[in-house]
Write a structure and sequence with these properties.
single chain; about 30% helix; 18 helices; about 675 residues; binds beta-D-galactopyranose; 9-stranded parallel β-sheet
Amino acid sequence: MYPERPAGIAFGGDYNPEQWPREVLEEDVALMREAGVTLVSLGMFSWALMEPEEGRFTFGWLDEIIDRLHAAGVAVDLATPTAAPPAWFVARHPDVLPVSREGVRIGFGGRQSACSSAPAFRAATARLVRALGEHYRDHPAVVMWHVHNEYGAPLGECYCAHSVAAWREWLRHTYRDLATLNDAWGTTFWGQTYTDWSQIDAPRANHTVVNPAQRLDYARFSDGEHRAHYALQRDILRELTPHLPVTTNFAGTVNCKSTDLWQWARELDVVANDHYLRAERPDNHIDLAMSADLARSVAGGAPWMLMEHSAGAVNWQPRNLAKRPGEMRRNSLAHVARGSDSVLFFQFRASRFGAEKFHSGMVPHAGTDSEQWREVVRLGADLRRLAGVRGSRVRAEVALVWDWESYWALELDWRPSVDLGFRERMDAFYEVLWREHVTVDFVHPSADISGYRVVVAPSSYLLTEASAKNLHRYVESGGNLLVSYFSGIVDEHDTIHPGAHPGALRELLGLSIEEFHPLREHETVTLIDGLIDGRAEEDARVWSERVRLAGARAVRRFGAGPDAGHPAFTRHDLGAGTAWYLATAPVTGLPGLLGEVLDHAGVTRPRGLPDTLELVRRGRHLFLINHGDRPVAVEGVSGVSVFDGVRHDGPVTVAAGAVTVIEETQETQETRETLQP
Ligand code: GAL
């Protein structure tokens, strides 16, 4: 259920007028009108003002603001302020303060200072949300609910007594009897057998490594506790306002490890995501695209909302670089290209005090005679012209397997190499596809993937038997699967699948691994062509292993290193499809190897475009975003340029740093569809 209002692409951001004198509200409303702001998120951190003492609710100040915004035609995404429990509440219930894995109880003075499992916090949450919901249920300005703020960041796991009590309940519910738990956790290792539920603690900091299955379950449990805290609020709001969508903003799909967003997305009426650039990375627009694609994917392909990004610099990175001219526009339109129906910022007006006073806002400290504000106003105009994009879908032929459980498990302690990390391979494959102008979806390994020409599994260390079967079926019925090293190794309890690695994928890949040979820090090995023997082709790093073929054939072999002469890149034709396996991390050769798989599967890519041009199709709109410093000519474009109304039939030139959106003519789309093999 997407919010019905505002129409078109929603534009605006978090708005915190409670930090300003009343007259600034008037100025802000005028500025919102000037920029064409249509939606603001209100009340996110205002619990202390909404309930100054237990049970006394004061919404008058907020009524005034909401009425004023409504009169100006600005819709409200009303937040429940549970990410900022007030001082009086924490003082009365100090037991709600979260405890870290190291045993440190955090103090009041930041935010997210209550444990999602604490009974007093849940009770206070329910009271407040009911009062808020009852007060605003019929207010015409309120178009949706925004629960809490960024569950999981920074508070992922809590180790307080309430958490431990809830954890034991969760374990009883999950395992039913202790024998099953002991078995699942492999407690015969290091003599950890439990004989009573009360003996089980949270996996606190330890002088050695804690049982990995216990830690993995604690990650599941902790995420579930936050979800329960969300659901408590959502259910109250749904009861009071069944016509309004309820959401919570994800703390960056790709950058918040602790939340399993496949699970979360099912609980939301509309997916909302925050994304902040890692400012110093020159190609940070690729991370942005990945975050947006993952948001769309967890939303099941439906339009989602960009709930927060920044107009300029953030304040929490080592060096907070301001956005360069045009960068905020490129960022915003890239989110829209990849499925967002909103462009919202943190925050409307930059704060003068508090922890985030050096964070940019749509209205900067410098005021409206600034490049920043002019860009904001221009973006508002752009988005009005893009209203027709709303609701349309992005189609992808290639999918990347992304599973948070595998992320958690892979990054526990004592793996064969510190160079193994979930994001490392994921980013490497995503980046190659991005630079090849191939739009991708992300999928859970158990999902229906039959519609994709190619599925890539870069970091599927944890793979259940059921998911492995799903991948097997996909290949047998004609799919192309590319698996990267250290995948299919363990089951849902971090227990190695029986027999040689990769236990879950041996048959599918037509091979087994006799021994891992992780490389030294700067060591590289060469890959040589498997068919024309002896020709050194490219370097690879991080990983080598002894692959034994059992049905697959070698497409490349290791030319040097511990596995010289043995397979490094293999293919296994199985049923109507093919399973490929890459046993190392190529340094420059990944585009070539991945290209072989894409070609084999008939995934066409536009030729001759620089890898700084972002090209995405959403519905009948073609987005061309030039991240480079030279103009780019894109051939064969037929349609109308949305921003200047110019009709094109042939090449379109996108200026350096610019964005062009073409509403394609019907014929072009049909031709494109029939041209696709
Ligand atoms: C987000 C958060 C916002 C604001 C922003 C600053 O993570 O949800 O409230 O703190 O970061 O970049």
